[in-house]
Amino acid sequence: MPCIFRSPRLCAIAALVLVPLAQAQTASPPWVPPATWLLYFIPLLALFGAVVAICVIRAALKQSTGWSLADALSEEVDLPVYTEVKDAAGNTTRSLQLGPDGKPLLAAQMRASSSRVIALMGMVAILFLFIGFGALALFSLGRTGQVPDSLERVVNFLVSGMTLFAPYVVNKFASLFQSLPRGK
Fold first, then answer.
1. Which domain holds residue 165?
2. Does pTM surpass 0.85?
3. Which of 2, 11, 25, 183 has its CA 20 to 30 A from that of 79?
C-alpha cells in the first residue's frame, strides 16, 4: 500500500503504528462467558419481570370499575327484538317485533365471542412460548457469545402458531365485508 506522506520517516512511523492497529481490529478476542450464576440470573430476571408486568396489568384492570374480561371478549351483534306479553292466566308469550317494512327489528347486544376467546388463549400460549424461547436464547447468548442458529426455526414455529388467531381474523374480515353496500 503506498504511503500518503512525502517523508520516508513518516511513512515508516505510520507503518509501525497502523499495521499492528489494523491487525488488532481484525482479530477479535475470544468470547469469555460471564459467571455461571449470571447466565442463569439474567434469563430468570427477564422471566420474573414478565410475570410481574402481567400481574401488575391484571391488578390494574381488576381495580378498574369500567373494564371486565367478559366485556372485552364480547362483541356487538344485531339480534331480533321480542316483546313479552302476559295474558290473564299469567302465561308469558314472546312475540317478534316487526318494523314498518315487515322485517324483524334488530337491536345491538353484546354477546360472548368464541373467536375472541380463541384469540386470547392463542395469545397467552404464544406469549409463554416466546418468553421461554427468549430466556433460552439469552442463556445461549451469554454462554457462547452468539445467538443460536436454530433460533430461526423457533421463529418459524412461533409464526406458524399465529394460526390460532385465524378464527378471529376471519370473523373480522367477514364483519368488514358485511358492512359494504350490497348489489354494487
1. 113-174
2. no
3. 183
